[in-house]
Design a protein that fits this description.
Helix content: 40-55%
Number of strands: 12
Number of domains: 1
Structural class: alpha/beta
CATH class: Alpha Beta
Strand content: 15-25%
Oligomer: single chain
Length: 380
């Protein structure tokens, strides 16, 4: 059985591996064919995104991976009169190179700023591609990113690189046995999801160890506003949620909100203890109060209304309230996990999908209550 801690570490790191390019031996035709197929598969995974025009000069790069334990970040291009602002990179330089190639088809203008919505690897490991391609590019993040990445971030990354191989072997073994993580026979949805996870995760171990950490060169605590001609790019920390380093990018004139992992579809990603469910609801309420008509989540499709955000806000408020009550009653964490009732929200978010149910159990029911319990206990 795959441990929850290993799966959480594996989440959201998508990396392309290096192929063998030795010139000292002459491979036979079958070797060339195999290498060619592997290279094409790698490029296919890296290119598994769609560029969508949201407004004049604004494009979302939306990943098309199946819902599962492995994800890579959406990106946004904001093309201005003289330069480009990019929101978020990816889990590996090789993926970001494909994203940059897509940008080059839209404009030859240089990238001036890269905004990282938070510090997780699937949003930052491709930063070096922009640094190498555009001398003088600036990286924008919340102040806490400069503190987190060299410390706890480096520890978490090391743990991931050590735990990922076991996770991959477990998933491959489950496919061979036709068994799910829960022990039942795989459904078609689960099989496709696991295969997608393996394709993404298979790239992690070679490039993941060498991808460089680029720290923000410009930081904000609460707000930083950029002006490009008539365009306003409002970068804000509305509060914590997914991490303490969450920032959003708001284009008020276009009605576009880029949320990072404050919003993830189809199931929110919660980490214990790094997420903040006690504050997440109010952060989402502040986001909704800005009345965006187009919402680009950290993962998942572009949203055209805030109904999903409303559901998330209600769920996190309920988690916080129920957990605070459990702590007040003197319950242990394990008791609180049983007494906090998330059945209605599980039904709304996961429905009858076995994959979404597993994601909900792994990233909401467990860690969200754990994080909320730690927050509530600290107040007593």
């Amino acid at each position: 059985m795959v441990s929850k801690s290993v799966i959480f570490l594996v989440l959201a790191f998508v990396v392309i591996g290096h192929r063998d390019s030795s010139a000292r031996r002459k491979p036979d035709d079958s070797h060339l064919s195999s290498a060619s197929l592997q290279e094409e598969e790698a490029r296919s995974v890296a290119r598994n995104f769609e560029v969508q025009k949201l407004a004049g000069g604004v494009y979302a790069v939306i990943r098309k991976d199946l819902p599962g334990f492995m994800v890579d970040a959406n990106n946004v291009f904001i093309i201005n009169d003289d330069d480009v602002i990019v929101v978020d990179a990816n889990g590996a330089p090789s993926i970001t190179k494909e994203v940059l190639a897509a940008l080059r088809k839209l404009t030859s203008r240089p990238v001036k700023y890269v905004i990282n919505t938070h510090w997780h690897d699937d949003h930052i490991r491709g930063n070096q591609v922009y640094r190498d391609a555009f001398p003088g590019v600036e990286f924008i993040g919340r102040t806490t990113m400069r503190e987190y990445l060299p410390g706890q971030g480096a520890i978490n990354r090391k743990n991931f690189l050590e735990g990922a191989p076991r996770f991959l072997e477990d998933l491959r073994g489950l496919l061979v046995k036709n068994k799910s993580l829960g022990g039942w026979d795989l459904t078609n949805e689960e099989r496709a999801s696991y295969q997608s996870d393996i394709r993404l995760a298979g790239f992690v171990l070679s490039e993941g160890a060498t991808a460089e950490t680029i720290l923000p060169t410009i930081t904000l605590e609460d707000r930083l506003t950029l002006y490009r001609g008539s365009r306003v790019i409002d970068i804000r920390h509305l509060g914590s949620g997914h991490t303490a380093g969450d920032i959003v990018v708001h284009l008020p004139k276009e009605g576009i909100m880029i949320t990072g992992d404050l919003v993830v579809w189809p199931v929110p990603l919660v980490g214990n203890p790094q997420s903040h469910p006690g504050e997440w609801a109010s952060t989402l309420d502040k986001l909704r109060a800005l009345h965006p008509s187009v919402i680009v989540p950290g993962h998942g499709p572009v949203l055209r209304d805030d109904s999903y955000l409303k559901t998330l806000a209600e769920m996190f408020a309920s988690i916080a309230q129920q957990t605070q009550a459990a702590v007040a009653r003197g319950e242990t964490l394990e008791q609180a996990r049983k007494s906090v009732n998330l059945g209605d929200f599980r039904k709304q978010i996961a429905g009858d999908s076995p994959v979404r149910k597993a994601l909900f159990a792994m990233y909401v029911a467990g860690p969200a209550v754990g994080a909320a319990y730690g927050e509530a206990s600290a107040k007593h």
